[in-house]
Amino acid sequence: MLKSRETAEVVIIGGGVIGLAVARALALRGVRDVLLIERGSLGAEASSAAAGMLAPQAEANRAHEFFYLTCRSRDMYPAFAAELLDETGIDIELETAGTLYLAFTDHDAEELQKRYEWQTRAGLPIEKLSAQAVRELEPAINEEARAALKFPLDTQVENRRLINALILANERIGVHLETGTAVTSLKIERDRITGIETSRGFISTNAVVIAGGAWSSLLGAGDKALPQLRIKPVRGQMLCFQPSLPLARHVVYSPRGYIVPRRDGRLLAGSTSEHAGFEKQVTAAGVQQILAAALELSPRIASLPLTDAWAGLRPRAADTLPVLGPCGEIAGLHYATGHYRNGILLAPVTGELIASAIVDKAFPSELEIFSPDRFGLVAVG
Ligand SMILES: Cc1cc2nc3c(=O)[nH]c(=O)nc-3n(C[C@H](O)[C@H](O)[C@H](O)COP(=O)(O)OP(=O)(O)OC[C@H]3O[C@@H](n4cnc5c(N)ncnc54)[C@H](O)[C@@H]3O)c2cc1C
Question: Which of 4, 215, 320, 324 lies deepest, with the highest CB count within 10 Å?
Fold first, then answer.
């Protein structure tokens, strides 16, 4: 087996959208020796399974630091997409049609009304549509839809193209991407990171970013204590249909599911939220649940060929918030994980925040609610 490099200025553990976004942001800030280590293939886990929706407003019930962080990242996307196109020639297919949220029941309508009221009060762009107006926008949606909200700024990106663009951007800027290598433990001496142990040998470094997705809290440091993140995998299944003509232009939600039309003609439908450990398979019950929600959105889906199905594991911290920034107790240790349902959306802002924490030694105090220091320390073993 080939031996790994022996030193690096910064090591990133995990090659999903988050690790790749952090690596690129560090290299753009002038860090020359960035090493990203991925156990399998780059982007092959949750980041490829995702639907690619950038929809902070559609999902938010209140204003909160998390809500503002997601909006900030969504609003970074136009520049992020343009930069990636410039760096790689890859178009990540950032759409601008907006997102629709449909109500079918009294309860749905009440939820939509509450969302409309608080977001209008907060001065956010949001539109209320009658049943007729929504059918004019999307003729294939269910005639039973009673009302809808339109979120003009919430949108989507082709997350698999995003992964490919980030890989190429990193390669071109000189980031070393090492696949097929597992990090097995962190080395901590006198409360500071001094290296990592991998399946190909020891690498000495003073800065580590844990971006290991759903596996982030399995990493230990021998008998040394680490923040007790308790990241758990939450399985999400997805279905993919192939209509002969496009069925919708917008991302369309109900409280029970969503459909996402891709530029290449595919129509994705999702998803489930299941606590099934690290089991990644598609199940009959998952397919049934997604189909029911998709057919409620558009009965025309019933006749479409179902061409693909997959599942991925969302990384969820105990309090459901992302875990971002330096660890106060262990110098050189940083976290970029726990992005749960929003890792594609949060990739640009996470890259910026973590690169700035490492290069400028700065982390905004208003974002301390995301700090790994909110968890107590415990030895993982
Ligand atoms: C069905 C589904 C739909 C989703 N839809 C959306 C959406 O519409 N919008 C959105 O914003 N988000 C969505 N998400 C969530 C999003 O996919 C995740 O939040 C995001 O992909 C997390 O990225 P990540 O890089 O942290 O994790 P991952 O993509 O899982 O990458 C983590 C990587 O770390 C590697 N790794 C772990 N441990 C080690 C180790 N010890 N050594 C080496 N490598 C290691 C893994 O092999 C993996 O490749 C969805 C998720 C699912 C499952």
Answer: 324
What type of residue is 297?
L
Compute, in angstroms, the gap from residue 182 CA to the centroid of ligand 1.
16
Q: Per residue in 206-240, pLDDT tens?
A: 999 999 999 999 999 999 999 998 999 999 999 99
Give the 3-state secondary structure of residue 275.
coil
Q: What is the pLDDT of residues 1-57, one digit of tens each?
A: 555 689 999 999 999 999 999 999 999 999 999 999 999 999 999 999 999 999 999
**Cis peptide, bond prior to residue 356, ω within 30 of zero:** no
Q: Which atom of ligand 1 is nearest to the CA of 270?
A: 1
Q: Which residue reads 């990242």 in tokens?
A: 73
The residue among 290, 223, 258 whose CA lies nearest residue 58 is: 258
CA dist 342 → 233, 294, 359 (Å): 14, 21, 25
Relative to the CA of 14, which ligand 1 atom is closest? 34
Instruction: Give the whole-angstrom CA distance, residue 280 versus residue 229.
Output: 22
Q: pTM of the predicted model, to two decimals? A: 0.98
| Residue of the CA atom closest to atom 41 of ligand 1 | 183
**φ, ψ for residue 321 (rounded to 5)?**
-90, 155
Residue 282 DSSP SS3: coil
Cα 92 vs. chain centroid, distance in angstroms?
15
Q: Which of 4, 11, 12, 18 to mutate to test the pocket of ligand 1 (most atoms within 8 A of CB)?
A: 18
